[in-house]
Structure formats: C-alpha cells, structure tokens
Amino acid sequence: MTQVTASYSTTSTPRHIADRLVNAKRVLITSHDRPDGDAMGSVLALARALRQRGRFVDIWLAGAFDPVLQCLFANEQPGHAPEKLPTAEYEAVAVLDTGSWIQLEHLGPWLKERREKVVVVDHHRSGDTDFADRIVDTRCASCTQALVPIIEALGVKFDMPGTGGSGSIAEALFAGLATDTGWFRFSSADAAVFTLASRLLSAGVEKDRLYRQLEENSRPQRLGLLGRALSNIRWLANNRAAIMQLLPEDFVTASGSPEDLAGVVNAPMQVGSTECSLLLSQTEVGIVKLSFRSKPPLHVGGTFVDVNRMASEFGGGGHVHAAGARVKGEMSVVAAQVAKVIERTIAELG
Ligand SMILES: [Mn+2]
To answer: Are residues 196 and 96 both part of a single domain?
Structure first.
C-alpha cells in the first residue's frame, strides 16, 4: 500500500547511492509507468552520467508517454514494452521519480524479486518503504534536481560551458526541472531551482528549442480532446473547482489517445476563481484516470487546495498542486465521488 507517512524518507546518502551504482557493471534505470518529462529527464541524465563512468546501462520505460518527449533521446534505446520484462540481469537497479508500487505496475513483480538491488531517488511525499536505499528529497522541485548530488558524487561534470547541447546530461536535467515546475511558474520553482537552471543554461542548454519541442509540438488531437473536455465542464463550489470528463467515445471522436491529454487539465486555471481542476478520463473498461491540479490564491498566506491529499483518498498521490490516481469503477459513479470530495475539501478551506 502507498502510505503518506514520515517513513517514506531518505535512508541513504548521494555518495552511497553513487557508489552502489558505479560498483555495478550493469545497471537498469527505470521510472514510473507512463513517464512524464521529469521521469524521462531523470532516467536519461543518470544513464548518461553512468555511461560516462563506463558502466553498461539499460533504460526501461513502461506505458504510454507523450511522443514529444522523444526529442530528449539521443541514441538511447529504451525498453518500452509493458508486456515484456528485462531479460538481462543487473547488479543494480535505479528507480527514479517514484517509490510507489502503484506507479510501478508493469515492472513491479520483477522489481519485487530484486528489491535488494534497487535504489530509489524521488521527490514525492508518498511512497512505499520496501527498498532500503532511498533519497527522498521533497524540497526538490523535480527528481532531476534530487539527482544532482548523486551525479556530482559520481564525479561527472554536467555544467561545463559547451556541454549542454542536444542529448546531454544538462539538457535532461533541465527538461525535468522545467516540466515539473510548469516552466518555472509553480511555487516549487524557488531560488535553488533558478540556481540549478542557471548552471544548466551556462552549460549551454537551449531552453527556447526545448520549449518549442516539448510544449508547442502536440498533435491536433490534443485540441480535439480539449474541446470535448471543455464542452462538458462542470463548476463546483462557486466556480472554485472545475470538473471535466472524457469518455471512450470522446477519444474515438477526436481520434485521440491518452498521450494527447498533456495540459488539458490546466485549461480551467485560466479562470480567476478556479482553485482546483480535475480531469476524469476513461480509455480502459472500468478504469477512470483522475488528474488533479490546484493553484494558490492570489492573497499572501491564503490556503490552497492540496490535491495530493485529495488524490490519496483515491489511492493515488503526487504533489500539492499536481496529483493523479487511477480508480476502478464507472465514470458517473467516480465523478460523483470525486465531486463530493472536492466540495468537502473546499468547504473545509472556508
Ligand atoms: Mn517529478
């Protein structure tokens, strides 16, 4: 079970994690199912750093991901076949940007048989405690930021001027940092984030090209799905929360797939009164995916909707301003349950 307890915390040091990885001849690096920009950036940054140290590294990714993330790959060949498992054996396995079994569905059983080989680097508040060696740095805005002390402990220089081009460690680190902070807009983008961003830009990361490739590169299907979602938007709690839903027939009409959904949940945030936005989507029979976002109020010291807490009521999790869950059930039933939780949460805020 995923637990929200103090026990999901750091148990190791960057030096120890680096030693475990560099002492392994073969390393497998993986992240949560349906990897996002931070998961992908984390996996690529660590893989590149270990390869610079002469280690043999395989990357394993499970589940669909937004095709725009392909631009981050250089010559890497990620294992990307959920129905298959790695066939090679590894002396160490790095699990990045998650420590939750629920997010490691595809590789879970394989990892469970090798748990003594696994190290975890994460920045989420909740996770499981089965893996002994963990860095869980919730002060970090991205997992790539949490990886920096480990890459430094590996003795790999990633911020030398001229080394931040396409396919570099710096670019991969920047991609995670930028995407997990909404391109430096979220409250998590603090001074330490800008300091790291500054180092990465000094290395030569081309942020304009990356923004264009990652954020202005979707298929027309995304707007089709956004249109379907906006057409059924429901406002709750005096327009403080918005709920949208996408049924299998919406995906058919828009010729879209779950990979086209990136950013759709954020659209209601344009409205001043919106504090919380929720997108329910269904592409598999009997499974509803919940995607939550919240934004802080404008007045200083105002309370905000903690969507991590809300998602955890449905067996999911994430961050205070972005979280998700997968729920078994029918859309109408799940939508009614979530609406109740939202109404209650906002009533408690006052
Ligand atoms: Mn992350």
So the answer is: yes
